[in-house]
C-alpha cells in the first residue's frame, strides 16, 4: 500500500478468508525483535492526532483502508495511522500479528494499534514515510526521475527487506510486493510496507494450504493458482516485476502500451540482447553496459513461469550487491580533473623563491584506493620552503633547493630537483639513493 498514493489498476485482490479469522483474535502486546514495546493507543488519542481523520491529514488509500498523518506525544512522534474499512479488520489484524514479530530497518515497522469498540474499526500505527512511494518516484510527473545510483540502491534495499522476511523463523511471505508498497523514508531509503496479505509460517502448514491466492494484478505469480502453490518464489516473481519497473520506468500493467504487461514486453528484448531498449528513456542506459545486462538478466530469471527456475532472494541480494559496486565504481583517471587558477609569478632564474599558486581545485575526484590521493599545493609559498603532500610522500625544498623527501614511515632523504624554467610548474626527480648534502650540483637548468 502506498501511503501517499493509490493506483486503482493495481489494487490488491481482496480475499475472503474465514479460516484465518481464528488466527487474528486480539493478543496481548509483546516486544518486537528490536525490543521495542508495541503500544496500545487510546482510540480518542489517535482521533485527536489526526484531527478527526481530516482531509488535511489524509495521505492516501490502501488495500484495506485509508492512511492519515498523526502527531503524537506532544509533537515528539510523527506516525502514519491506517484506518481500516468498516467490518474489514482481518488484514489489519494480520498486519499487526506479523509486524509485531518481525522488525527490520528496510521494513515499515509497527509502532502500535488501537480498536474502536463501538464501530469495530481497527487502527494501525506505523512509521511515517515522508517521501512518498517508489511508484510516485517512477511514474509521477511531480518527481524528478531517479538516476541509476538511486534505482539500484532502491532495488537492493527492497531485496534485503524480502530477504529479512524469508529468513525469519518461521518465514514470512509478503504476497503483495509492488512499487506502491515500497515507501521512501526521510533519508531516501526504501522500505517495504503493507502486510495485510502476508502469511507467516511454514509452507506445509494448514493455514497456508487453506488460504486462497491473493496479490495484485500484474505482480501476481502465474504459478500461484491454488493455496498449495504459495512459496517464497511467489515473492521473487513479484520482485522481478518490480525490478523491470525500476529499470524501464513502465508500470506492471499499462494499457497505453502494447503489450500491456511489462513482462511480455521486456523479456523478448532481454532474450534478444537489446538491453538498452528496456532502460527508462528519461535517464538512458548506464555508462557501464554490464550494469543493465546484469539487472535485466536477473529480472528475467525472477519472472520465469516455472517457480523452480527462479533464484532465491539471497542470490538476488548478492547479484544486486555486485551491480551496485559497478554503478559506484569510476575509472581511476577519467574523473581526475584539475583546474589550476591564478599562477601569479613565474619561476625566477637563480632565485630561491617558488611561484605562488593561489588555488588548485579538484573536481569530482573519488578515491579508489588507499594508494590514490589528491595533490595539495601549499599556496603563496615563500623563500623558506614549500611542501607538497601527495599522500604517499612529503616533499619539501630546503634553502639550497634540495628536495627533502619524507616517506610514509618518517624516513627523510635528499633528492635532486629539476627546475622547469620555461614553464610555470615545478617537477622533481627522486634519486634511488640519498645525496651528499654538502654537494651544490644538484639543481640544473633546462
Automatic annotation (TrEMBL):
Record's keyword terms, sorted: ATP-binding, Kinase, Nucleotide-binding, Serine/threonine-protein kinase, Transferase
Highest taxon listed in the record's lineage: Eukaryota
Entry GO MF terms: ATP binding; protein serine/threonine kinase activity
Domain Protein kinase: 53-323
InterPro entries membership: Kinase-like_dom_sf, Prot_kinase_dom, Protein_kinase_ATP_BS, Ser/Thr_kinase_AS
Keyword match Transferase: yes
Entry annotated with the keyword ATP-binding: yes
Binding annotation for ATP: 83
PROSITE patterns the UniProt entry points to: PROTEIN_KINASE_ATP (PS00107), PROTEIN_KINASE_DOM (PS50011), PROTEIN_KINASE_ST (PS00108)
Similarity remark: Belongs to the protein kinase superfamily.
Protein name listed in UniProt: Protein kinase domain-containing protein
Provenance organism: Gossypium aridum (American cotton)
Amino acid at each position: 500500500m502506498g501511503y501517499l498514493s493509490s493506483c486503482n489498476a493495481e489494487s490488491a485482490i481482496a480475499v475472503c478468508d474465514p479460516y484465518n479469522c481464528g488466527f487474528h483474535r486480539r493478543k496481548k502486546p509483546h516486544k518486537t525483535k528490536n525490543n521495542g514495546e508495541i503500544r496500545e493507543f487510546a482510540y480518542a488519542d489517535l482521533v485527536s492526532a489526526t484531527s478527526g481523520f481530516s482531509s488535511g491529514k489524509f495521505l492516501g488509500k490502501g488495500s484495506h483502508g485509508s492512511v492519515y498523518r498523526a502527531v503524537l506525544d506532544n509533537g515528539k512522534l510523527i506516525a502514519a495511522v491506517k484506518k481500516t474499512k468498516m467490518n474489514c479488520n482481518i488484514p489489519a489484524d494480520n498486519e499487526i500479528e506479523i509486524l509485531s514479530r518481525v522488525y527490520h530497518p528496510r521494513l515499515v515497522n509497527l509502532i502500535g494499534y488501537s480498536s474502536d469498540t463501538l464501530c469495530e474499526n481497527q487502527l494501525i500505527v506505523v512509521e511515517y514515510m515522508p517521501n512518498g512511494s517508489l511508484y510516485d518516484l517512477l511514474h509521477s510527473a511531480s518527481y524528478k526521475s531517479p538516476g541509476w545510483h538511486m534505482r539500484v540502491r532502491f532495488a537492493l534495499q527492497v531485496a534485503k527487506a524480502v530477504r529479512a522476511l524469508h529468513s525469519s523463523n518461521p518465514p514470512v511471505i509478503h504476497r503483495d510486493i509492488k512499487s506502491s508498497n515500497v515507501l521512501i523514508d526521510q533519508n531516501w531509503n526504501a522500505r517495504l510496507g503493507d502486510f495485510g496479505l502476508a502469511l507467516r509460517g511454514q509452507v506445509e502448514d494448514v493455514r497456508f494450504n487453506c488460504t486462497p491466492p491473493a496479490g495484485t494484478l500484474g505482480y501476481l505469480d502465474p504459478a500461484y493458482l491454488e493455496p498449495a502453490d504459495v512459496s517464497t518464489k511467489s515473492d521473487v516473481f513479484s520482485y522481478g516485476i518490480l525490478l523491470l519497473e525500476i529499470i524501464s520506468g513502465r508500470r506492471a500493467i499499462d494499457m497505453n502500451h502494447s503489450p500491456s504487461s511489462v513482462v511480455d514486453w521486456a523479456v523478448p528484448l532481454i532474450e534478444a540482447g537489446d538491453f538498452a531498449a528496456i532502460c527508462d528513456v528519461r535517464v538512458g542506459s548506464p555508462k557501464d553496459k554490464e550494469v543493465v545486462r546484469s539487472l535485466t538478466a536477473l529480472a528475467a530469471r525472477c519472472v520465469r513461469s516455472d517457480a523452480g527456475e527462479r533464484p532465491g532472494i539471497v542470490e538476488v541480494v548478492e547479484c544486486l550487491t555486485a551491480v551496485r559496486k559497478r554503478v559506484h565504481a569510476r575509472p581511476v583517471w577519467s574523473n581526475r580533473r584539475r583546474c589550476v587558477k591564478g599562477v601569479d609569478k613565474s619561476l625566477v632564474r637563480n632565485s630561491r623563491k617558488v611561484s605562488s599558486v593561489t588555488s588548485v581545485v579538484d573536481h569530482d575526484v573519488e578515491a579508489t584506493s588507499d594508494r590514490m590521493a589528491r595533490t595539495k599545493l601549499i599556496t603563496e609559498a615563500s623563500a623558506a620552503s614549500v611542501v607538497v603532500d601527495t599522500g604517499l610522500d612529503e616533499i619539501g625544498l630546503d634553502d639550497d633547493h634540495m628536495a627533502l623527501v619524507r616517506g610514509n614511515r618518517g624516513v627523510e632523504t635528499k633528492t635532486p630537483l629539476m627546475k622547469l624554467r620555461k614553464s610555470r610548474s615545478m617537477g622533481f626527480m627522486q634519486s634511488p639513493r640519498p645525496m651528499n648534502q654538502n654537494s651544490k650540483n644538484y639543481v640544473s637548468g633546462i
